Amino acid sequence: MRRALGLAREGIALASPNPYVGAVIVSPAGEILGEAFHTYAGIKHAEVIAAEQAGERARGATLYLNLEPCSHAGRTAACSDAVIRAGINRVYAAMSDPNPLVAGKGFERLRAAGIEVHIGLLECEARKLNEAFAKYILTKAPLVTLKAGMTLDGKIAPPYTSPADGVALADAAGGWITSPDARTHVQELRHAADAILVGVNTVITDNPLLTDRTGLPRRRPLLRVVSDSKLRLPLESRLVKTANKDVIVFCSFAEEKRRREFAERGIRVEQVRLGALDGRPDIAAIIERLGELEITNLIIEGGALVNWTALAANVVDKVFLFYAPKILAGTGSVPFASGPGFPHISEAARVRSISLHRFGEDFAVEGYIKDPYATDEREIRQIRPPS
Question: Can you give the pTM of this predicted structure?
């Protein structure tokens, strides 16, 4: 099963909006007869490819996979039928498929064909791996991760940063708050994401590229998303200069001339309703639209105001907060979130199922505000951490 999970991870950035699936077929003597992982472009699902590799030797063998075989026809025929035709005797699956079209039906079909089915081996790891798929398939909205790098006293930028929404991770002297190890992991998070969102002041302040710099293959480019109420995004910014149909700007007001300037540079501009909290483009509307574009996994790397807006609008599913052993202090330093704040402790955004990660001297807190497997966004359940 660990091998199947490892194979499934090979599909990161290659399978979305489909789930990550790895499959291993093993003979009664313990020999691996076939193994595969799914990619969206490859169309065929992992268990089908593994069965094709095994051929006739699959008869009487055991199949290990991290997700229930599908039982419905979509881009491919039902995988449960392919498993039955292959002559598999026993199936170990880490978890059931959260897709309501499957959700246990694949297991039912296997058992009806006389196949022995076991469910739950390494389930926690499997659920974490496909949490973005689960959120998307259940709600048609992406999993939203709020990511930030900050000092121990919760500052994301020194006092000199003028735009209130700036994320000045690199100061005027070229220094960074977080370590190289932490920043390398940020690139891994970006690689696993379909889109990254910032406010326009982050672009004005930092002039970032907002790209996936892992060097690993992707099926589609990381979509770079900017919330920009009046299209103030500088045409000379690196984001605009490197745009290749992978930048989308959400605005509330826009002159036609300005729209044309962006369109000429390969940047899509879409208008959404105003947010009730701060007069900016409504972040919930942005996320809803990204779901329509088949974005399953979104990272917010905004500044203080964007962070607060996302929390206040209740669109954040999880946080990944990096801390460096530094203290900025000072009333002018930029806090992690800047806004009215929650009026009572009882109303604060509560982070559950905490995991701690070390990156050299830095550490990170990963945790959940909402359960990605819940269909009702008001429903918050404890999520078991990976074993």
Answer: 0.91
